[in-house]
Design a protein that fits this description.
Elements (H helix, E strand, L loop, with lengths): L22 H8 L8 H9 L6 E2 L5 E2 L2 H17 L3 H12 L11 E3 L2 E3 L10 E2 L1 H8 L3 H9 L11 E2 L1 H13 L9 H22 L4 H30 L5
Antiparallel strand pairs: 1-2, 3-4, 5-6
Helix pairs in contact: 3-4, 5-7, 8-9
Length: 245
């Protein structure tokens, strides 16, 4: 089993300053295996205690090779095993303490029961309602309120896209600052408009007769989504007059 120390050697993409990497370099390293990862995702995992990068005197993050290895483990367990972040954090912390830590099994939820995952996992990670509540640290009342504002929504079979856990955790974090779900409707509306714009761009590719062109639509959608998120972040920072490290 691969060890995941918070500081150690392992990646050749380290920056020159003591073998540490900027968050941009970390993003480049991780995208070889996780093309959908973003800087926002890395920051979120840090906020959730999954990784603890060093900070320069000016506040910029600096990641060790061990940090990058740990992030890789987190992303892999999310992608392949659909585990909540709390479970992943406890699992990795146990590994660091040298304890025997078999990978937890968390199945999908159906009618209130845990259903083991099939050997061949689905392409899109899904989590049950109970898993979503546990991952976000919220109760049924809060989740129902968020659903009423369209911030999270179950799929047709009653489970959730795994990204819903990220959304829920961020909504909960904003709530600590007094920002209520009703205040976030404007963000949801903006996200829907941005998604609509991307859909307009890729629609001709999705309808093309050539199967390869249609397949290319998915890659183009991911690329445009990443650019849209980065632009949105830059615009918010500009409007607030701040710069995030």
């Amino acid at each position: 089993m691969l060890r995941t120390p918070r500081g150690g050697a392992g990646h050749g993409a380290a920056a020159a300053d003591g073998g540490l990497m900027s968050i941009g370099t970390v993003l480049s390293v991780l995208r070889d295996e996780f093309p959908e990862v973003t800087i926002s995702k890395i920051r979120f995992l840090e906020a959730e205690g999954l990784v603890e990068p060093q900070r320069t005197p000016s506040g910029y993050r600096k990641f060790s090779a061990g940090d990058v290895e740990r992030l890789g483990h987190v992303l892999r367990m999310q992608r392949d095993h659909y585990l909540p972040l709390k479970v992943i954090r406890e699992h990795l912390d146990a590994m660091e303490r040298g304890e025997a830590a078999p990978l937890p099994t968390v199945g999908r939820q159906r009618d209130g029961e845990t259903v083991p995952e099939a050997p061949e996992a689905p392409t899109v990670a899904r989590i049950g309602r109970a898993q979503l509540l546990a991952a976000a640290g919220i109760d049924e009342r809060e989740l129902a309120e968020w659903e009423s504002y369209g911030l999270v929504a179950p799929l047709d079979d009653g489970v959730y896209d795994a990204e819903a856990a990220t959304v829920a955790a961020l909504v909960a974090e904003l709530g600590r600052f007094g920002i209520e779900p009703r205040h976030l409707r404007v963000m949801k509306a903006a996200a829907d408009r941005e998604a609509g714009l991307v859909d307009q761009v890729v629609a001709p590719l999705k309808l093309h007769r050539n199967p390869q062109t249609r397949a290319h639509a998915q890659a183009r959608t991911k690329e445009l989504a990443d650019l849209t998120v980065r632009l949105h972040s830059a615009l918010v920072q500009t409007a607030l007059g701040v710069r995030l490290p």
